[in-house]
Every structure is written in C-alpha cells, then in structure tokens.
Request: fold
Amino acid sequence: MPRGRDTGLLPRLLAGAALLWFAAAGGGCAGAPVAVDYDPDTEFLFYRTFAWLGHVGEPSGEPESLPGARVHKVVAEALAAHGITEADPATADLWVRYRTGVRTEVVHTPVYIDPLPVPYAIPDGHRDPREPPPIKRFNRDGAGQPHRSVPPARSDGAIVYPYRSYIYVDRTRFYVGTLTIELIDREQRRVVWEGTTSDTATSRDTARRPTPQAATRIMAAFPPLHP
Reply:
C-alpha cells in the first residue's frame, strides 16, 4: 500500500465534535440533561425525614464505597436544604437509593487519505491492476491510443499512473455511565420520584463509578414543580 499524507483532518475534527456533543448530551459537563419522573399526586412538602439505602443490589451491612459515600453526602445536603433530614430506616418518610449502568457508544468517522504526488512507471504492454482497462481510441493512421478520464503521462516508453486516494473508517469507542437516584415512599413502598443523568468516560470502570457532580445535577431537579 502506498504511503501518503493523511488529509482527514476535518473528519477527525468532526469525530472530536461528536464526542463533545455526546459528553454535553450525556454527561461530563455542567449542562448535561437530567431526566426526571415522579408521581404527580404526591405532596413532597409533607416529607420530613429520609433514610439512605445505598446502591441497588448492594448487600446490607456492607461498608459503603467511596463513590457511594460521595453521592450520599450530596443527596443528604440537597434534601436538608428542603427540610428533609436523615433518620432511621424504620421510621423515615422516604427511602433513598441509587442505581448505576454503563453502555458503550462508538463513533464512526470516514477518514480520507490523499497520496503523495509520486508517480510510478508501468512498462509498455503492462497495465496497472488497480486501473480499469483502457479504452482504445483510434487516430487517423489507425494506431490505437489508451484513453482514460485523466490521460496518463508518458515517459520513455512507460505509462505513468498517479496513486489513487483511498478511505478508511476511524472508530472511536467510549463509555456512558448512568446514575439514577430514587425516592421511595416508605409507607406505600413505591417510588415517588427519580432522576437520571449520565457521564462519558474512556473506560468502563470509570463510567461505572457515580460522581458527586452527577448527583448534584440530579438533586437540583428536586422537588418537582407541579404544572
């Protein structure tokens, strides 16, 4: 394969813009969206206490992880700002838990390669296999001449062909970690409010860890504003 210069700068810039768009749409910045769902019949002003249940699926009695402790702190401060303080799980008005998830995103970007303008020679009687068969065009004396859309240059009994451009697809893989915080009415045993947001990362392990920034974005949407 001929060596050439990569002129795919624009596609690479587009790939970077796509990553920034995913980060803005799914996390990794202050303006990442938060999806909120809640029970419109619930009067959130009546809640006064909450209990922290931690990560969904985490065994009870296990030490809380560092990421979980950071999310816990953010949630406790946000609820305290609305007059909801932490209490015993047996008597609290609300139970609070969180769940995480990871999904993979791949951006496919076409990258064009323009070759260096270095010709190569094919001896008379031979044809470059990469070129289509030449079309014979006859002149007045009956001699056939090869003809292409771009006529090849001639040099001392040889036909010189330029290299062709070619294309490949650049694949950029990254991971989107989601964080969902749920508020559960203890007496009714049902979720009355939940918020979800996401962050982008370059590794699955990093995307799986919840961040306090994501928790802050979610809790900023509590309590819901009734229409």
In short: Residues 8 and 111 are 5 Å apart (CA to CA). The two ends are 64 Å apart (CA to CA).
